Structures are given as structure tokens and as C-alpha cells.
Amino acid sequence: MMRKTLVLFLLVYSLSVYLSTAQKLEAYQLFDKNGEKTDFGALVQASALTEVVLFGELHNNPISHWLQLELTMALFDRRGEQLMLGMEMFEADDQIIIDEYFAGIIAERNFRAEARLWNNYNTDIRPLVEFARENGLKLVASNIPRRYAALVNREGFEGLEKLSSQALQWVAPLPVPYDPDLPGYKAMLEMEGLPAHTSANFPKAQAIKDATMAHFILENLGEENSMIHFHGAYHSNNYEGILWYLQQREPEIKIVTISTVEQSQVETLDADNKGIADFIIVVPQTMTKTY
To answer: What residue ranges define each of the domains in the chain, with the CATH number in brackets?
Structure first.
């Protein structure tokens, strides 16, 4: 009888430990740049005190997009209509379509038909767009039209000199500063799986995107306004990309950077991810993808 009782006790104990462990599954963990755990409240506080928040996402990661919306709502509570949103997901020549939709001049079906929407628009991007529209917030289409990024990939920055004055309205002012020795751009030429014919223009195509997004952030940023800008994490990781271009024009600008990474565990920040941003969102590698 004693043996059966002991076996039953051990089984119950083992089950309770298992269930307790299972219930502690974390969807994400926030860290600061030094690898210390932090929380969403600290992220909101830091973001509310800055001029530009560069929110680097993993495009197919639902945690990125959920936290983007939550942070936007929290900043709106503090800044109201002084808050603006900027997005890599819209190209600069889409701005008139966005403005007409927000003003009620065109219907959503026309906006959706004519803007070049990403394939995850409904699940990941639309909630932010509709929050901005419903609350009277400016939404800035900050990315270079992809046809011009492709032109730079083929011909370098010199290819942009062929564009008309109208087309150049949608591109960072020429000549574009460029530092090929920035680690992020150098690493692009060392990526596995690149076509054999990849040239030195490949990171320049990335740089013109970064430069153009920085340009439209600054063009829309007033003395009293702040902007939260959404883009792939590689556009601001390691304080390069968009941030580098912002600081070329405005060295004293106040910026908070956020990155999103995936790890096998979320309890500690992997050494490779330390220092890539002011705040790092760590998500389990097993997290469901949106596409």
C-alpha cells in the first residue's frame, strides 16, 4: 500500500511539474542592448521621450506586428495627433493614394486596388493603417519605388541620374552619401546563396532604400511631432541603415531602435544579438509565421 501511494505521489508530482513548465511557455521576452531583461513599460517610456522610433520587424512574425500595434496605441495615448507612422511597406509614390484614402476621397477598395500592398497586408499591416486613419494620424510612405531600387542594383547610384525631376521626388536627394565599409553593407556581399553575378551595386540598392526612408522621415518630422517607423530589422540593426542616414543630416536627432530576433530560447539574449538595438524582442524559433 505504501509503495502504491509513493508511486501515485511521484506520478502526480511529475505531472504537476510538467504542467507547470508547459504553462511557462513565453511568446517573447524584451531585452535592452546589454542583454538585461526589460519590459513593455520601459519600451513605451523610452519611445515616448524620443523623436523617432525605428521598429525593426521580422516581416512574417506575428509578435512583431502585435507589439507594433500595442506600442503605437500606447504612444498615441501620450502624444495624440503629434504621433506619425512611417512604413517601409509603402513606396513614396503611394503617398497620394494613402492621403486620399485617409481623407475619405477614395474608398478602401480603390486604395487596396491601386496601392502596391504586401502579401501580408490583411494580417500584419492593415491594423496599423486603420488605426492611423481612424485616429487622424499621418501615415508616411517612406520607401523608394522598387523599380528605382532595381535600377540602382543594375547601374549603381548613377542610374538615378536618368530619372525625371518628377521621379526624383520619390528618392533621397542626390548625390546619396554611401559608406561601403559599414558592416551591414559589407556583409551583404558575403551572404550565402547570392547569384554569382552579384556586384558591388547590391548593397547600394539596400542603401538607397535606407537613405530614402530616412529622407521621408525627416521631411515629415516637425518640431512638435514624433514618428514610429516600421521596417525590416536589417534596415536599422547595429545602428546602421536608416539610423546612419538620419544622423548624417541630423546628428543630434533622438532615436530609439527596436529589433526582433528569433532564438531557440527566450530566457537570455544570445551573444550575437547583444548591442544590435536599444531594445531587442526575442521570439521563439517555433513561433507561428503569418506567411
So the answer is: 30-143+209-270 (3.40.50.11550)
Residue 182 CB-density burial (10 A; 0-12 exposed, 13-18 middle, 19+ buried): middle
* Contact call for residues 227 and 221 (beta carbons, < 8 A): yes
Residues 147-176 pLDDT 10s: 999 999 999 999 999 999 999 999 999 999
pLDDT tens, 41-67?
Answer: 999 999 999 999 999 999 999 999 999
Going from the C-alpha of 123 to that of each of 66, 127, 151, 206, 258, the distances in angstroms are 10, 8, 31, 26, 21
Quote the distance between the C-alpha of residue 42 and its chain's center: 19
Q: Where are the alpha helices (DSSP H) in the chain?
A: 2-22, 40-48, 62-79, 95-102, 108-114, 126-134, 146-155, 183-188, 201-220, 242-249
CA distance 8 to 1: 11
Residue 125 in contact with residue 290, Cβ under 8 Å? Answer: no
CA distances from 26 to 9, 15, 63 (A): 29, 20, 11
Q: Residue 32 forms beta bridges with which residues?
A: 279
Helix or strand (DSSP H, E) at 85: strand 83-91
Percent helix, strand and coil across the chain, each to the nearest 5: 50, 15, 35
